[in-house]
Structures are given as C-alpha cells and as structure tokens.
Design a protein that fits this description.
This protein is of the alpha+beta class. 24% of the residues lie in helices and 14% in strands. The chain has 8 helices and 5 strands, in the order αααββαββααααβ.
Amino acid sequence: MKYVLKNRNAGPSNLVVRDFMKKYKLDLIEIPQEFQDLEVEDNFSPKKSKRARSRKRVYTRTDRSLVGYDVWRSFDRQLIVATGKEKAECKLMIPPALLKRAFGFPDKTNIGFAGTGNYDFEDANLDLFRIHDYKQTDFYHGLNREDSFYTSERNLKKPDHKRSKKWPTIEEFWNLDEPKPFRLLCSE
C-alpha cells in the first residue's frame, strides 16, 4: 500500500500500481500504526507463484519467439485450400531436402499443376498450417529448353527478374539443399 501511495503518479507504465488502483480505492484504506515507519523499496516487484512460473505459455501471433512452441505433422486433419492462389500468411525460405529429411515425403497436393507437394501441421491450439511449394518446378512451367537458350545473349541482356531460367524437375526440387520459397497457409 505504501509503495502504491508513493508511486501513484508514475503513470500506466508501473503495472503493480495500475493493477492495485484498479482493484482498490486508496481513500478507503488506512495503514496501521505499526507499519507507518517501514521503508518502501523503489524496485518492488510482486512474487510470482510457482504455479504461474511453471505454466506453459500460450503464444499469440504478436509473439515472435517459437521457443517451446509445439507443432506436429497432421495426417487426419487437413487445411482446405481451393486453389494455389489463396492468400498466404508468409513465404518461408526453406531447403526442400531439409523438409523432406525432417518430415518425410510430402503429401500429394490438391492445387493441380501449381504445386508438387505439401505438409500439413497442427499445433497445441489445434490450429492447422500448410506449407507448400507454389510454381517452383517444371511441372507447372513446362519442359525446359536446351541450355543454349538460357545462356544466349538475348536472355542475358534482360534484368535478373525477367530472364528465362531453367526450372528443376520434381525430383530435383525435393533434393535441393539451397533455400526455395514455400507458402505458409493458416486456418482462420
């Protein structure tokens, strides 16, 4: 109580004072005579119970830390995606070979020629996530031309993002050790 009286003008940044003043009226509380002479520490913080410290933390989307975040591959529930053009939450740069080593072979995709495989995941909150490749192989772009086409002077004059490039086959793609973009879709 003395700490709250001393720091009541500290503003909303002091959570101990703010929470105490929400719960109790300072005008109605009297400090007993034997506690009038006690000194108040400036760096007071309430003790947390052992239960509060050991409780697992539920992560929200604003929390960027994934330490202790439980997620596993889901086979019985799947995220419903009508087309590959569904709005993705983000793009992840992951080596396809690393995904394949960690989670096994990908599931067959249901977005047609735009993708070659996907992984469905479920977390502790029973939210569903899907990671899939989108337009990353020759399965979508068609068969590659001869090598001289990609190294021609006409193609090399174009800026990097407009150059024609060779697309890997499905097998080559899933064995690549360099990061490739994957789309992450989440349940609403």
